[in-house]
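Narrative summary of target 7.
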Amino acid sequence: MRPTRSARLLAVPATVVTGALLLAGCGSDGDGTADLSVQAAYIPQPVSDTMAAGFLTIVNKGDAQDELTSVTSPAAGQVTLHRTAGSSMEQVGSFDVPAHGQLVFKSGGNHLMFEMLKTKPVQGETVTVRLHFASSDPLTVEMPVKSATYTPNTGH
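Modeled conformation, tokenized:
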């Protein structure tokens, strides 16, 4: 028995749709976006009444790189991004967060600088920060204030 003309016409679109679905399944597993989270955030209790440093790790499990462009906090007049190269510290405008990688802020390396503190953070408190990115939505992080000599298990 030979298929009718209408059955043949319906078979063509079905074949096209099936082929498109198979091709879509052959692509990458990701959707081409960053997938950001924060780990091991803390602020050592500052000695100064006006400045403090902050450390954390931004993890990107996504397929796309993103860029940390700024940090804000109600605890400080401004929060700046710093890189330490050798014995000198320099302010930078942004940091890359690589796809399937991480951006580490650690003592002696990249760090956040809280300037013009509104009150001096003390051990046991938390400081709220908002991380702003080029592509991803901002992340709000509660950073615990640790002792001035705190050394995290993560090594940063």
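The first strand starts at residue 36 and ends at 44.
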